[in-house]
Amino acid sequence: MRRPRLICAVAALLAAVGLVVLPPPGGAGQASAAGGGEDSAVTVTGRKGRYDDFSKLKVTVHQTRNLRAQGIRITWTGGRPTSSTNFEHNYLQIMQCWGDKASGPEREQCQFGGSEIHAVGGQFSGSNLVGMPAGSSEYDPKEKKYTYDDVQGAGWVPFRPVRGKPTTTPTDQTYFTKFTTNEQPYDRTGADGTGDAVFEAQTGVESPHLGCGEAMKGKAARPKARACWLVIVPRGEHEPGGGRGSDGRLQTSPLSASNWAQRMTVKLEFLPIGRYCPIGQAERPTLGSEMVSDAMTSWQPALCTSGRVTYGYQQSGDGFARGQVANPLPGSPGLAFTSAPVTAPEGAKPVVHAPVAVSGLGVAFFIEDPEGALVRRLRLNPRLIAKLLTSSYQRDVPDGLTQPHMKGNPESLVTDAEFVKLNPKFKNWSPSSFPQGLIMPQGDADSYRLLWQWLQSDREAREFLGGKKDPWGTKLNPFFKELRLDHDSAVNTFPKADPSKANATPPPDPVTYGVIDLRPYVNSLHDGALHARKGDSGQRNVWDANSTPPKFTGSLQPPGKRFQLALVDAASAARYGLPTAQLKNGAGQWVAPTPAALLKGVAAMKPGAVRDVLELDPARTAEGAYPLTEIAYAAASTGLSAKARKDYANLVRYAVGHGQVPGIGPGLLPPGYAPLPQRLRRQALSAAARLQAGVADAGNSGGASGGTTAGASGGSGSTGGGSGSTAGGSAGGASPKGGQSAPPPNGGGKSPGPDGVTRAGASTPQQALGAVRWVLLAVLVLGGAGALLGPLLMRRGALEAVGAALRRWR
């Protein structure tokens, strides 16, 4: 009996030490110490031009340091009101540029001219064409460099990348396209002279041709990260020659010499990207829930520079992650992030669960009202979300306005009487301005199952999913009826079951598109947030026969008329500056995923089948609680080696210690998370102590409960993508009777990705954040019929942010 007592004593001692170093909850003061956010705001003032006076215009960029791939809020005062949503006069044009000179960038260094927006603005106002014929209303007398040529036509400003050759034609898409550029050619000023916009900042990962955040050449041991620039070009009521523009609107480019002379520049300092973890130090892979993605990739820089261990992180489906811990093979990650417990197989070492992050699932929106102003508040009840998830609006089905099975249903959300009742602002909304569906991710996740369970807990939504019409006559898309979404508690994907097709080209040999072309999946919740920020639903239903090879393409929604909804995690919404809809909780209250509402959601949770893992009942009537709150747990087996257990225990200790200090910067808890309550921090430290000592979870009971199965599919690649592969094993019974539902119908199009796969362009933030990227090293082939593919040994090289060395922890 002496050895077990000794182990328990060691565990108790480790827990006690952990409690001593546990910091208090982080507050606003602590967050500001990171040097990002509002404390780095910069305001610049315009100047008086020859024809337009911008001297009263003041533009504030609300964050200029510690930047990653994110949204930056920009506000301004003292402008003249934009004439209309067609952007004829008086607006701002904003772009991101590189440039190593202290004086700022040259116009050839700016990412501009790729938006291909033609519905608003002038003929050249969103382009890089600057040299016009003398005598024309667009002629700029100060444009001496890129002049008009009788042979070549209009002069144009080539883009010169940080590395490589300049573009060779005005339409050269070597470096950026309408889908990848972050330029904002039309930002509106309101009637009171103020404006508000969010700009998508891009690092050298998203835009290598800008190189923002890349290490500068030099002899320093820790090279300086390349800064970039935000350039704002105000537009007034006059062209460079003094006229008001042909067709009553400005036609010239902001890159034209006279317009460029009015530019306002703000330096942007990015978190470093690229390698910063010491080469050769110990490496510990982790994987799992997207809910911990932003937090983990923020913690990684501090962990690897202060703890002498490089912690990899691979985003994957929760079920696949649990399977890696429950049924590991050589090379499997030793720690998984999941919201449901891992049940070890009979005879295996128990699994320890430690809470590390609190966040939530939500619906983000980017909506511009008929006047072009941003909509700030939106309410969605469970039944409305059920309609969006089941393609029950005509506009979400190919040729839905003429499809017999969609007859009688509203065209879109904005023409749904139930939506207008909850959101009176939309009473007189133009039917032509509607959301291009609800952007939703492929694959499966615990958070997706939580959403379906919330809908099933609401009587109105449950009855609608079961086939009952709402009071206004809207009915469920009949192709979803057979999926039993009203009571299948295991469903954790978003099926696209409508098989309808429409012609993209006319007969006799039409090219058709389906629902997945009209309303395609995105790779992840983070990816959904980024698409929403751009106003890009991903809709690709226009056939481009001139492409090589021919393909479906589409266009972005025009500025001033954008309307997009997306399923997101709260951290991604905060990251890209997207507001989230208020949802109706069990108490009948409208709540958004604020830190306070998330913590009330945690307080309403109760222990599940495994006592140390809390479960949320969406139907509970907890005052102020957000109904889609989720806790991410770090789960690891006590059967790991002693060194691995110690390293993973240290990860948990950091996560619930300094990792709970809210702020922007390496090692901090990013916006979109709520700091763990003290009781959960104590629980996590106790779990870390038991893990290091090899002692079982105090509340770990045998037997599997729903939601703990490993799932049938898995696989992974680096954060940027990879192909899936099958993984054997189940933590709690074979799918679909365990925690994973059978593959749903998807309308005959592309199927949702397997639960373990993060596809190319997927969401794990590829920012200056520090994701230690694990690339696919090997697939273990197991003998026997079926040749089961083993788990992937993942390496994530090269973190993307250098964290300031934090105090060393043990």
Features:
810 residues; alpha+beta; 7-stranded mixed β-sheet; 4-stranded antiparallel β-sheet; globular; disordered N terminus; disordered C terminus; transmembrane helix; membrane
What would you note in describing this structure?
The chain contains 15 helices and 30 strands. It is of the alpha+beta class. The strands form 10 sheets. It has a 7-stranded mixed beta sheet. Strands 1-2-3-8 form a 4-stranded antiparallel beta sheet, with no helix packed on it. The chain has a 4-stranded antiparallel beta sheet with strand order 7-4-9-10, with no helix packed on it. Residues 700-736 have a biased composition (Gly residues). This is PBP domain-containing protein. The chain crosses the membrane at residues 774-794.
How do the strands and helices of this protein lay out in sequence?
Blueprint: H1 2-21, H2 28-32, E1 42-45, E2 58-61, E3 70-77, E4 91-98, E5 129-131, E6 155-156, E7 184-188, E8 195-201, E9 228-235, H3 257-260, E10 264-268, E11 282-288, H4 293-306, E12 309-315, H5 318-326, E13 335-338, E14 351-367, E15 379-380, H6 382-389, H7 417-422, E16 438-439, H8 446-457, H9 459-465, E17 502-503, E18 512-513, H10 515-518, H11 525-534, E19 542-544, E20 551-553, E21 563-569, H12 570-575, E22 582-584, E23 590-591, H13 595-603, E24 606-607, E25 614-615, E26 629-637, H14 642-656, H15 678-693, E27 713-715, E28 724-726, E29 774-781, E30 789-796
Parallel strand pairs: 11-12, 11-13, 15-22, 16-21
Antiparallel strand pairs: 1-2, 2-3, 3-8, 4-7, 4-9, 5-6, 9-10, 13-26, 14-21, 14-26, 17-18, 19-20, 22-23, 24-25, 27-28, 29-30
Helix pairs in contact: 1-15, 6-9, 14-15
